[in-house]
Amino acid sequence: MIKQIDFSRYSSIKIGPIADVKIIDDINDYDDYRIIGKANNILVSNNSTNFAVLGHNFDYIKQEDNKLFVGCATSSGKLLSYCRKNDIANLEFLAKLPGTMGGVVKMNAGLKSWEIFNHIISIKTKDGYINKEDISYSYRNTQIDTIIYEVVLEIKSGFSKDKLKEFNKMRDNQPQVPSAGSCFKNPKGDFAGRLIEEVGLKGFEKGGMSFSNKHANFLVNNGKGTFEDAIFLIDLAKKRVQEKFGIKLEEEIVIY
Q1: Residue stretches of the chain with pLDDT short of 50
Q2: 34 has catalytic annotation
């Protein structure tokens, strides 16, 4: 099944073409496709093709013994609500984290030191289940080069409303305008936002895009931003930070 998606409306940064997207409803070999999920951390050019999204068959949460089996089309918000209802601890950091669990796992998403891989037991791909210890992952990064259909998470009791409140407050400090979340990964021992601000790019605009005045590591769309504007700013930040600090910024945003 194919459906058309307008990325200028569907993606969180509100940039991109109208494109055909394949709906995947079974486990098979689709490695030639680019999985977009809810398109919360991607920047799509007008020339990109071969998009796919997991269908409703992969939107589920099943609890067995001390494990949660979560389909990767399941939204992070749906999983958070399940944890609150069933008194499951340690996933409170999913508060206001957009997207589906496939993207959350692929990016090892989280908030500061809290990240999803702290609580993963295994993932399911076309080759079956792969244990966490056999996956190469690091801060906001994994070496998973195939589609993730399911994630298996450990269950510990004790959902914390205090932690939930804390994470919500931390998210509220982030810009509330169209963006793809953090533009760059934080370099070891430093913060991308601080570096971008230090080289004079906080609030800097190009066309309809800018680095946010609220948080310099958020590349935001002020209304009519284009792919070209975004790439210009990304390249400029990398160049200036490299020149001033000798640090090579690495994108957290995925560019297609």
Answers
A1: none
A2: no
- Alpha helices in the chain, H assignment, sequence order: 7-10, 76-85, 101-106, 161-172, 192-198, 227-245
Residue 40 has what pLDDT? 87
The per-residue pLDDT for 51 is 95
For residue 243 the two structure tokens come to 């020149």
Nearest residue to 89 (alpha-carbon basis) of 187, 162, 174, 188: 162
DSSP state of 197: H
- Res 170: pLDDT: 77
Alpha helices in 22-100 (DSSP H): 76-85
- Catalytic residue, from 75, 182, 210, 212: name it: 182
Look up 182 and say whether it is catalytic. yes
Q: State the pLDDT at residue 113.
A: 78
* Contact status, residue 54 vs residue 24, Cβ threshold 8 Å: yes
Rounded Cα gap, residues 256 and 242, in angstroms: 23
Query: Which residues in 124-150 are b (16+ Cβ under 10 Å) and which e?
Result: bbeeeeeebeebebeebebebeebbbb
Residue of 140, 160, 197, 205 with catalytic role: 140
pLDDT at 95: 86
What is the enclosing helix (H) or strand (E) of 24?
Answer: strand 18-24
- State the pTM of this model: 0.84
Known active-site residue 252 = yes
3-state secondary structure of 181: strand
C-alpha 42: how far from chain center: 8
pLDDT single digits (tens) 52-74: 999 999 999 999 989 999 999 99
Facing residues of 137 across strands?
142
